[in-house]
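Entry for the shared binder. Reason: the reviewer on the internal report wants the predicted structure included alongside the sequence.
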Amino acid sequence: MRRSLFATLVVVVLLVAACARATPTPTPQPPAPTPTVAAQPTPTPAPTPVPTPAAKKKVKFTLNYLAGGPQAGFMYAKKLGYYDEVGLDVTIEEGKGSATTAQQVATKGTDIGFADGPSAMQVRAKGGMIKIVAPILQTNGFAIISLKEKNITKVSDLVDKTVAVQPGAAHGVLLEPILLGNNVDPASVKLVNIDPAALVGSLLEGKVDAILAGADFQSIQIRDKGFEINEIFYRDVGVPTIGLSIVAHEDLIKSDPDLIRKFVAASLKGWDAARKNPEAAAAAVTEQFVAGNQEQILKQLKVDLMLVCAKGAKSLGAPPEENWKLTFDLLVKYQGLPADKPVTDYYTTEFLPADAPACP
């Protein structure tokens, strides 16, 4: 019985061992490779669009004459960037006289001009479609100039005196209303025509007692030669006619009033700055027109700054209405200006800024 049980156990053990050998041990398998995902580039943000500045409007501006004190405010406005600030690219060119510049504006040979008020009015009267948009020198700089030793200090002192004038110049034409307005008989004063180049010399050499000329030009020449003089300004003795002014063609005024408005505002700003710093304004002239003499220009400018505000004016660019009327009446009577249209046909105030620099 024991033997039989033992035999049975042996058989069971052998069977278990055989089964173990028959079942193969599984071979470990490597993990499945992780699929490779291609790296995606980080998107670059689109650049922020930079706004393109509006192109500046080109403006050709022609002076009445060679650059100097009477024009310094424009060069100073350009130097200080006042035209740039309002989107204007201004080119300043020298001129050959007020009448010529006014005619250039009338024929559209230039965009905007700087001309003596009466000269511009005469061009308009002859069919030129121009208007004065802002007087810069609100009165003229004409003067009766004499050597101090002659003791000519008032209009009545001209009685029995010889006075020199440039042929055809407004100085001579406007002397008659001065004489009449100051109770002097025009026949009591002898007028002689002198070539412009000899005007100063005729006074210094004693050939004449006085000359009719510009306080910002001939007066300075005489003083620079060491002579003392007396000056009787036309504006102080009844003839404060409109002086050098900004003029524009009516077509430009209608097609681009914003350009005119900006140019006038920037220019008045430049002239106001010149009042505050005439030395820098004179320097701006010689920087832009190297042929100029800065010392002479400064002397001229100091005279012209006396003319930027007429008596009774409230702001730059806006002489009193009575000055316009007087200018018109004198031109009609003494220079043949037609009287068929009112003085308001020759100028406009619509482009003067509400905040124009104040007078004086």
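Summary line for the report: Residues 2-22 form the longest helix (21 residues).
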